[in-house]
TrEMBL record:
Pfam families: Phage_T4_gp19. This is Phage tail protein. It comes from the Bacteria. InterPro entries: CHP02241 (IPR011747), Phage_T4_Gp19 (IPR010667). It comes from Dactylosporangium maewongense. Transmembrane segments: none annotated.
């Protein structure tokens, strides 16, 4: 039996079109929502029709301490205003031992927001960065 920390302490390795952006310690926003239109039917007072009209995908936010891999992220993000081609992203949740616990592939990824560290010489803290990605859905995913 494995140690609890090996099973549940995870980090996230991200690649864009097979180019690694490095590891992140936080991943939020992996999700989808079915958009529903409500329609009342004349003479039917028992319920309102719930008609699915599409799927909306939430943006994914990844955070980490600033590392040498931050330069890769900066190059990819700063190319966006000049017409970055939408890419495929793969996010792998890995255990402390490096084993892949789960994997999500995202279609047509575009970086939409980056926030860097708060620089305060009077405050001793790890400097972090966060990137937010928009996408057009999941290509595939699995959990180990």
């Amino acid at each position: 039996m494995s140690d609890w920390s090996d099973d549940y302490a995870v980090y996230f390795v991200v690649s864009i079109d097979d180019e690694s952006l490095g590891a992140f310690d936080s991943c939020e926003g992996l999700g989808a929502e079915v958009v529903v239109e409500e329609r009342a039917e004349g003479g039917n007072n028992g319920w309102v029709w719930q008609l699915p009209t599409g799927v909306r995908y939430s943006n994914v936010r990844l955070s980490r301490p600033v590392t040498p891999d931050s330069a890769k992220l900066a190059r990819w993000f700063t190319g966006a205003p000049g017409g970055v081609r939408r890419a495929t992203a793969v996010i792998e949740a890995r255990s402390a031992s490096g084993a892949v616990v789960a994997r999500w592939a995202l279609r047509d990824v575009l970086p939409v927001r980056w926030s860097g560290p708060r620089l305060d010489p009077g405050r001793a803290a790890v400097i972090t960065e966060t990137v937010e990605l928009a996408h057009h859905g999941f290509i595939g995913s699995w959990a180990g």
